[in-house]
Design brief:
Rossmann fold, disordered N terminus, globular, 14% strand
């Protein structure tokens, strides 16, 4: 008896929230056999997909039982040990690492190539690329205020982003220069530096952005951030739109344009 198409095609596990959403946007949602607990979008697609832990604590034994043919990982999100373990039982491990907005185009092509045999993937990838290029052009055509920005992702201690992260390079499209003036390298803790709270440059910050993730900042934190940067405008922002890459990249650029105005 011939096996159903769903059984003969790729069995994809995604260990990255942005990748899970992007795979669904490429029409591959029905091929997902595993995800992390942080892979929550699109809700209608992932609801029936088994969870295999978090991005940093993947349940490898459970994942192995789901027999994936492909696993999508990310240099920032997942541990090197996880990648090395996956190589022992997964035929193809797809490593992603978007570090700037235009890397989304590389990502779409990377996933298109990996799953080119699946119906509709080429067309979906082309659509995502076109939407992103249009949004990037809109963002670059607008005013660039040349402001110093502190993007906070955590407190106790305060933590921010290095200038070579996806978040920082996205904000640069609005003319915003994140601080500190530091590069974090390819991977590791240096990409998300902690603050002492008494850095001299904090007094020169024009705008503080309090992200909704990974720490969920709320109205109760506005005064604390204002005290950190007394002359700055302090705003709560959608961390998913400013840090999730892939299918959310175009929406992130449009959201950035709205914040800039």
């Amino acid at each position: 008896m011939t096996a159903p198409r769903a059984e003969r095609g790729p069995r994809i596990a995604s260990l990255v929230p942005s990748a899970t959403e992007t795979l669904a946007a490429l029409g591959l949602g029905h091929r997902l056999v595993a995800r992390t607990g942080f892979c929550i979008h699109p809700a209608g697609v992932v609801a029936q997909v088994p969870k295999v832990g978090g991005t940093k604590d993947v349940n490898l034994a459970r994942l192995k039982k789901l027999m994936p043919t492909h696993v999508v990982v990310n240099v920032d999100e997942n541990r090197l040990q996880t990648f090395e373990a996956l190589r022992q039982f997964v035929p193809e491990v797809i490593v992603t690492h978007p570090r700037r907005p235009e890397d989304n185009l590389v990502l779409f092509e990377q996933l298109r190539t990996a799953f080119a045999d699946e119906a509709g993937v080429d067309a979906h990838a082309a659509m995502l690329s076109a939407q992103f290029e249009t949004a990037l052009a809109r963002c670059r055509a607008g005013p660039r205020p040349d402001e110093n920005v502190l993007y906070l992702i955590w407190r106790e201690p305060w933590m921010t982003v290095a200038r070579d992260t996806y978040i920082s390079t996205l904000l640069a499209e609005a003319g915003w220069h994140t601080w500190p003036d530091a590069l974090g390298g390819e991977h590791g803790a240096g990409r998300y530096p902690a603050l002492q709270g008494d850095e001299a440059w904090l007094g020169r910050i024009d705008r503080v952005l309090l992200s909704s993730e990974p720490y969920r900042f709320g109205p109760e934190h506005l005064a604390l951030a204002q005290a950190l940067c007394p002359r700055a405008r302090v705003q709560l922002v959608d961390g998913e739109l400013l840090s999730w890459w892939g299918a959310r990249g175009a929406a992130g650029l449009d959201y950035l344009r709205a914040l800039r105005s």
